[in-house]
Description:
By secondary structure, this protein is an all-alpha fold. It has helices at 2-30, 33-42, 44-69, 75-96, 105-133, 139-170, 174-183.
Amino acid sequence: xxxxxMKFALVTVxxxxxxAAVITNAFVQKKQFYPxxxxxxxxxxSLAVLYxxxxxxxxxxxxxxxxxxxxxxxxxxxxHLIEKFWYVITETCLAFTVFRDDFSPKFVALFxxxxxxxxxxxxxxxxxxxxxxxxxxxxxxxxxxxxxMMLLGTLxxxxxxxxxxxxxxxxxxVQMVFxxxxxx
Length: 184
């Protein structure tokens, strides 16, 4: 575990330095904000570095939210999460091949957010199952479960409404897959 933390700390520092270097390079070359942003979005290597930074930040946010809502995860919860995660990635990527023309940064963001949400749903399912089998549950445990259920329910409703609205206005698109995947 300590080895993983050290590696992740190195990845975090490395991506932060690379992001700073890429942004600095863009501003040194272009000298103004708008041309620098255009340069960053048109350069594949710059986008790759920025995507890596976003994924590191999302991982850190996920760890913080996990600590807030779940505390320490049990080994069974981690195992279930990994099993379900690989299955859903494969299944969802196959479903997205139908809508390969819609691939964009927005698509990547929605896909990442979808996986994030599904992971918290799975962890919530395991926690509720654990709650059913444990005779004494603390007030903090109940508070965490209820607050996370309310947050996930609200986000689910917003995402389903968004997918429904986009599908009605634009026709069948990748939003349909996102709408179905939110609740499956």
